[in-house]
Backbone:
């Protein structure tokens, strides 16, 4: 009977879970509405019951190799979720301590979303066989994972890989972290919306964006407009790619990766984000690295990426 | 009989070498004038003879555990020195291939100066017992070494750790690498001299620096002037610390180190460099890291640091 790993992705709206084979097939999946469980003990109990039922239904008796969890603000070393603004549980939640009694004898890891995506890329995706690479996740914010010598960089307290919070413009845009000018205020789904509004303010040309309030603008609308030839949308991607390319040129000097992968909503804009990012990356790279670093799309990006990423640590001892 | 490692530090002026014990005592040392040997084969032969003579004289019959070499533009993976501007041998020099016949059965590593200093800090210095830290070497340029999970970060082609070539001011000062605004054009022995000349240009106050031509200014003179209360010297260190603190705040988000060590000439300025660097580091750190990263002096900085650093890889398998 085929061995399975359980992958759990805890989001502010839903908690998705799935049963994943060593070669990355999601054989069954389910979800729970996270916000329905303000009581954390109750949440963990319902989650474990739902997972047990899924195993019974889809793969009764299958050996479970372990449980991998991806969550915002997760501490890998402590097994906790700490002060996650979009989750219903306040303060520091001892996730592993509470979940492990339901899955005795299973190894269990919790890590943040971007690190889970990075291990997923290494185990199932386009980074298979690579020892040194960077994954950039472009969602509401900008997450990242650095792999060095085949190992995910965790750091002294497992807070490594927060490239989204490097300050690239001192005194610039206000960030959710309370500081100014962080990379993710420019390069992310929300960052590109802010850029469109800057362009609308600075220029006078007509644009469909002049009829859309800030609260209704999404990066998907900007991508659609770019496909239709809207100059503000194309300029917003150019600007986003410039900032991202410049930042990656600096990140490359630190870890000398073979490749950088772009993952998440903005990466789906294809050439609109890859072309300017790659151009500005190489224009800014030190001669030692110029034209030697691959800029590639994620190989696991899609519906099951979060479950795949969360489960991947079970098959690859990336710790 | 005590086991010894051979450490060789290849500089533009001199090649220093020494016999080092596992606990970091340099039991004997010598040097050769690098520029006297335009012929590389001749250089390697003389170097090996000089080392053999040193062993015969200082520790006859002692078991040699290995040879560690620190050199500018060294490629760890290839065992080569590549296009080093300040060395007499042009192009790519196969250092390990040429030296290893003289020391058969010895492990032999070549790495760049900053990475050698970093391994030295880990094996003999103030980073003993730490798994995650950064070393910044402040010489003519700015070198760096990143240690993650107890291993030196080498990268895909061993060019990791070039923090001195992150662009911190696009379009800023011209760098030796051909680009503009690299960190080392601001934060290094030459960078702080450039800063003093900017200050002399922008302000009108009297200063001893108004009588010193650019070619005669050194970072040691600036440190002496700071100790004597010269406002330009103190302001130059404040500015240098601001740029370094801001850069380290970004580097910390990538690898989440326990500590950052400052090594080299500028670090000898003590409070003049440590105080502003630490203040600007913490002022710019993301809340996750604020006041949690130690800023410390190197524990191996001094006359034998280069030999110690070069030899350290023999005792610590940092690869």
Residues:
């Amino acid at each position: 009977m085929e061995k399975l790993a359980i992958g759990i992705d805890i989001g502010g709206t839903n908690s998705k879970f799935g049963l994943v084979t060593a070669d990355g097939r999601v054989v069954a999946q389910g979800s729970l509405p996270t916000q329905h469980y303000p009581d954390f003990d109750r949440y963990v109990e319902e989650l474990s019951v739902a997972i047990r039922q899924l195993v019974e239904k889809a793969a009764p008796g299958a050996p479970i190799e372990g449980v991998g969890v991806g969550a915002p603000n997760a501490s890998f070393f402590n097994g906790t979720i700490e002060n996650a603004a979009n989750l219903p549980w306040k303060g520091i939640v001892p996730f592993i301590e509470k979940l492990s009694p339901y899955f005795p004898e299973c190894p269990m890891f919790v890590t943040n979303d971007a690190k889970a995506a990075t291990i997923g890329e290494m185990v199932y995706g386009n980074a298979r066989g690579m020892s040194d690479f960077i994954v950039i996740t472009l969602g509401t914010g900008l997450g990242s994972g650095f792999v060095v010598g085949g190992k995910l960089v965790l750091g002294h307290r497992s807070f490594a890989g927060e490239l989204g919070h490097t300050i690239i413009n001192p005194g610039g845009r206000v960030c959710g972290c309370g500081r100014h000018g962080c990379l993710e205020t420019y390069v992310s789904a929300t960052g590109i919306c802010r850029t469109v509004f800057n362009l609308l303010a600075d220029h006078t040309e007509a644009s469909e964006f002049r009829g859309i309030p800030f609260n209704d603008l999404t990066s998907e609308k900007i991508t659609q407009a770019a496909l239709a030839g809207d100059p503000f949308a194309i300029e917003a991607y150019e600007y986003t790619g410039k900032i991202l390319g410049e930042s990656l040129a600096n990140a490359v000097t630190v870890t000398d990766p073979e490749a950088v992968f772009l993952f998440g909503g903005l990466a789906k804009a294809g050439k609109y984000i890859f072309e300017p990012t790659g151009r500005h990356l190489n224009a800014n790279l030190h001669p030692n690295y110029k034209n030697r670093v691959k800029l590639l799309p994620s190989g696991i990006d899609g519906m099951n990426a979060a479950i795949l990423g969360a489960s991947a640590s079970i098959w690859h001892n990336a710790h």
